[in-house]
Design a protein that fits this description.
Blueprint (H helix, E strand, L loop, with lengths): L3 H4 L2 H16 L7 H7 L7 E2 L6 H16 L4 H6 L5 H12 L6 E4 L2 H12 L3 E6 L4 H4 L6 E6 L10 H11 L3 E5 L11 H10 L5 E5 L20 H4 L3 E6 L12 E4 L2 H9 L8 H10 L2 H26 L4 E3 L6 E6 L5 H12 L1 E2 L1 E2 L10 E5 L3 H16 L1
Parallel strand pairs: 1-11, 3-4, 3-5, 5-6, 6-7
Antiparallel strand pairs: 2-8, 7-8, 9-10, 10-13, 12-13
The structure holds pyridoxal-5'-phosphate.
């Protein structure tokens, strides 16, 4: 056990207390880097390995944005005029994905879609695998029963398909949620296995598959993207939710979409969501559907996946932590040195300027865990060096 008093100076202790207060205020999500920089300017943050985005994709977007919107003065149009309506942007995405436009719904971030789906379609019972992304149970309304399917530590928190199907048949929920790859552990269910599940849960009204990290997953040596949009034709109960925040590195823009049955979308659009995109997100969605951008994006996607694999390989060599298998751009780390996750997070922040996410608030994890994101190659190298320094000292 490491004694805190020996590790930190008095000034550092004060910083820690302030940091912990900010964290408590942020509830089940982490305080944003803006909040930290504004409220705690003395905090030496060098690397945000808490937020899970591809930094190369942010660079790419910024290149396009600067050239086409800033340098041309088109920024004025984006600010002055109304953006297109939900269904107009949906059609652009649908054409790109080669699916029915009536099956696409645009969201102000995936979070808006999660809220809409949970509030409108979940009637009595929802089954959620834990650990998970907290909004799925936090948004459940009064009267809805939330049933947790515990992923097992002994199975490295991977979904056991057979037991999962049995669980659903026993509990008979109207809604189930699968995050693939899962947040916070990166556990991945292969495409053929997803189909096995879908075939067995036809009586469930809403099968939500959250694919916010699917661009980081791969099933072949060339890292070809996984495409699941074909599934909707076959499974009418399917709701695919896709955030653009992580893989495109644009959380600030608020862009996400969902693919679901036209009937569900019609009922949502009756309740609102008309102009829920803004000028910036409309520009992004139009860019996303362009072949030139898609081609450039795929290069930074593959580069980032390859660097993430190297990063994870290096993490495996560090003594004192267990690295859980991940197909996402982050890993779940278990601490084996007797330290609590919260103490570890503050130590990394204060001593090395690395901001990682504690998982102490994540239900369903047995032990002390943090979630660590892969960043640029240089930042990853700094993280590895710091962790080695920390665990060897
Ligand atoms: C981050 C995240 C979201 C929310 O994404 P936004 O598009 O930024 O709202 C949804 N689902 C999961 C699993 C996430 O990790």
């Amino acid at each position: 056990m490491i004694e805190k008093t020996k590790v930190f100076t008095e000034e550092e202790e004060i910083l820690i207390q302030k940091f912990l207060r900010l964290k408590t205020d942020a509830g089940s999500h982490s305080p944003s880097i803006f909040t930290l920089k504004q409220k705690l300017p003395e905090l030496p943050i060098k690397i945000d390995a808490c937020f899970l985005s591809n930094p190369y994709a942010t660079d790419l977007f910024l290149n396009y944005f600067t050239k086409e919107i800033i340098n041309t003065g088109r920024i004025r149009e984006l600010l002055e005029f109304y953006p297109s309506q939900n269904q107009v942007i949906a059609e652009i995405i649908a054409n790109f994905l080669k699916i029915n436009p009536a099956s696409v719904f645009i969201g102000n971030g995936a979070i808006e879609i999660i809220q809409a789906v949970i509030h409108n379609f979940v009637k009595k019972k929802i089954v959620i695998n834990i650990p998970t992304f907290s909004s799925y149970y936090e948004f459940a309304q009064e009267g809805v029963e939330v049933v947790y399917n515990k992923l097992e530590k002994s199975e490295q928190y991977r979904l056991n398909t057979k037991r999962y199907i049995e669980f659903i048949k026993k509990h008979k929920p109207d809604t189930i949620v699968i995050i693939n790859p899962n947040n916070p552990d990166g556990g991945y269910i292969e495409h053929h296995e997803v189909k096995v599940i879908l075939d067995q849960v036809k009586e469930v009204e809403n099968v939500i598959i959250d694919e916010s990290f699917i661009h980081f997953a791969y099933e072949d040596n060339s890292f070809n993207p996984i495409n699941t949009s074909d599934l909707l034709e076959q499974y009418q109960n399917l709701i695919i939710i896709k955030s653009m925040s992580k893989d495109f590195g644009i959380a600030g823009i608020r862009a996400g979409y969902a693919i679901m049955s036209p009937e569900k979308i019609t009922s949502l659009l009756k309740n609102g969501f008309l102009w829920n995109s803004n000028g910036l997100s409309e520009y992004f969605f139009r860019l996303y559907a362009r072949p030139d951008f898609a081609c450039d994006y795929n290069k930074v996607r593959v580069r980032y996946i390859q660097e993430t694999i190297e990063f994870i390989n290096e993490l495996h060599k560090i003594k004192g932590i267990t690295v859980y298998p991940s197909m996402a751009n982050f890993v779940l780390l278990e601490l084996n040195n007797g330290m609590t996750a919260d103490d570890f997070v503050t130590t990394l922040l204060i001593k090395y300027g690395i901001y990682v996410r504690t998982c102490s608030d994540k239900i369903g994890l047995v032990g002390e865990y943090v979630r660590l994101a892969s960043r640029t190659k240089d930042e990853n190298a700094y993280i590895i060096k710091s962790l080695n320094d920390f665990f060897n000292s």
